[in-house]
Amino acid sequence: MNKTCLILMAIFFVLINIGPGNATTIQYIATNLQDSDPNQDLWQYSYLVSDRTFSENTGFTIYYEYGLYDSITPVSAPAKWNIDSWDPDPAFQDNGAYDALALVDDPPLDSPFVVNFVWLGNGEPGPQPFEIYYDDGNTFKILESGTTTSSPVPLPSTLLLLISGLAAGLCNRRSKGPGHLM
Fold it and tell me: What are phi and psi of 94, to 5 degrees?
């Protein structure tokens, strides 16, 4: 195997081990529900949380922008999570939120966190900001901030596939000699 192939293989293995990073991913699916009141546009978010192991007293809060959301109501969540929500406050023009606190180390994330809400905006509701935090009653600390996404970002796996294909093609071509066509 020539030196170029060895270098390309080393880069490939480094990229595999780097992976997508350690940022928490919260993906959502927005579903337009049947409206029980014709004056309200009822929706549902189903959140899937990944790329983080939660310890007891860590959690996440997803914020709902004042003026766009109302009647934030938790529907279901995985076991061993304490769920809370509050509506935007018109008196202070403050955002609403959905909060999930881990009650044990490594609680399950195998099913979605589901919340219903009334959408006050136009079109479809989109991504929201979130925070990952630690709170043991004495200490409160924000560990990470981000934005929910509607689908996973495939860049790392796509990039790795592209690089591995290019490396294999280059190594195959070089091993057969410069005058040989693939």
Answer: -105, 145
Reported CATH class of domain 23-152: mainly beta
Q: What is the pTM of this model?
A: 0.72
Give the tokens for residue 147.
Answer: 């934005």
Helices (H), the chain: 3-18, 155-176
pLDDT tens track of the chain, all 182 residues?
565 544 544 454 444 444 445 699 999 999 999 999 999 999 999 999 999 999 999 999 999 999 999 999 999 999 999 999 999 999 999 999 999 999 999 999 999 999 999 999 999 999 999 999 999 999 999 999 999 999 644 444 444 444 555 455 555 555 555 555 54
Q: What is the dihedral of CA 167, 169, 175, 177, to 10 degrees?
A: -130
DSSP 8-state class, residue 6: H
| Amino acid code (one letter) for 92 | F
The burial of 50, by beta-carbon neighbours within 10 Å (0-12 exposed, 13-18 middle, 19 or more buried), is given as exposed
Q: How many residues does the chain have?
A: 182
Going from N- to C-terminal start, the domains of the chain cover: 1-20+153-182, 23-152
Cβ contact 147:126 at 8 Å: no
Report d(CA 125, CA 21) in Å as an integer: 27
